[in-house]
Design a protein that fits this description.
Layout lengths: L4 H6 L4 E4 L11 E5 L2 E4 L1 H20 L4 E4 L3 H13 L4 E2 L11 H20 L7 H18 L11 E5 L5 H9 L4 E5 L10 E4 L5 H67 L1
Parallel strand pairs: 4-5, 4-6, 6-7, 7-8
Antiparallel strand pairs: 1-3, 2-3
């Protein structure tokens, strides 16, 4: 679905930062300056959303996960809602250092969370003393807060989607180290060279973040639907093949029946003679 410039304008995606705070590398995406604030070129934003959407759709269709990162207050709820709607992992609390570069250790912490859940199910948890139960509960709550949203991520993500690359600079550095593609909303105060797929946009207003993430999550949903359709196609073909094979067997059996009967008659006459 093509992105309308009008809807981006209504969401306030075009508002950049103060001119004195800008990054010169954002010059190609700046349309003009008004009242000491840079205005982002929304035609370029719309084109970049389409470009990023196509790439994210392909990644989702390949079965890889896309990790959403946004720890700023106005983006937290939006990211958790949009990423959750397409069943993608997300980080909205503090970025755990080494989340990507030390992924094995992070996975151990997630497994620990699953182990606590198992303890609660099989009754082992109740055999602990009151003090130990309290400690385990606190640990579980802490792990859930920081890593609960990535518990289904069993391997490194296929891409990273970041809101505000200045704030999430550690996540950007880790992704660069591991050559993980980075998609991001980039405001006029940030350096777009750090990102593979730049979406020039206002990363401070919740309306703007919501608008961009709606398009992004729709593109991912499209990729997931494509993957599901590809998986279902062979199953449908098998179901169609089954009755055809059955009919073929019946036809062959009908053809063979008279031939066998004639054979038996011939054998019987030979024996009588």
């Amino acid at each position: 679905m093509a992105v309308e410039v009008k809807e981006l304008l209504e969401a306030g995606v075009h508002f950049g930062h103060l001119t004195r705070k800008w990054d010169p590398n954002m010059a190609p995406y700046v349309y003009m300056e008004r009242n000491g604030i840079h205005i982002i070129n929304l035609y370029k934003t719309a084109a970049k959303i389409d470009e990023a959407g196509a790439a994210l759709s392909k990644i989702a269709a390949s079965g890889r996960k896309i990790l959403f990162v946004a720890t700023k207050k106005q983006a937290k709820d939006i990211v958790s809602e949009k990423a959750g709607s397409v069943e993608m992992p997300y980080i909205t609390e503090r970025w755990p250092g080494g989340m990507l570069t030390n992924f094995v250790t992070i996975r151990k912490a997630v497994k620990k969370m699953a182990a606590i859940d198992r303890m609660k199910k099989d009754g082992t948890f109740m055999t602990l003393s009151k003090k130990e139960r309290l400690q385990v509960d606190r640990l579980r709550a802490k792990l859930e807060k920081n890593l609960g949203s990535i518990s289904d991520m069993t391997r490194l993500p296929g891409a990273l989607f970041v809101v505000d690359i200045k704030r999430e600079h550690i996540a950007i550095k880790e992704a660069q180290k591991l050559n993980i593609p980075i998609f991001a909303m980039v405001d006029t105060n940030s350096d777009p060279r750090q990102v593979d797929y730049v979406i020039p946009a206002n990363d401070d207003a919740s309306k703007s973040i919501d608008k961009i993430l709606t398009h992004v999550s729709n593109a991912i949903a499209g990729g997931l639907a494509e993957r599901k359709a590809e998986k279902d196609a062979p199953k449908a073909e098998k179901k169609e093949e089954a009755p055809a094979k059955k009919e073929e067997k019946v036809a062959v059996a009908k053809k063979e029946a008279p031939a066998k009967k004639e054979e038996k008659v011939a054998v019987a006459t030979q024996e009588e003679e």
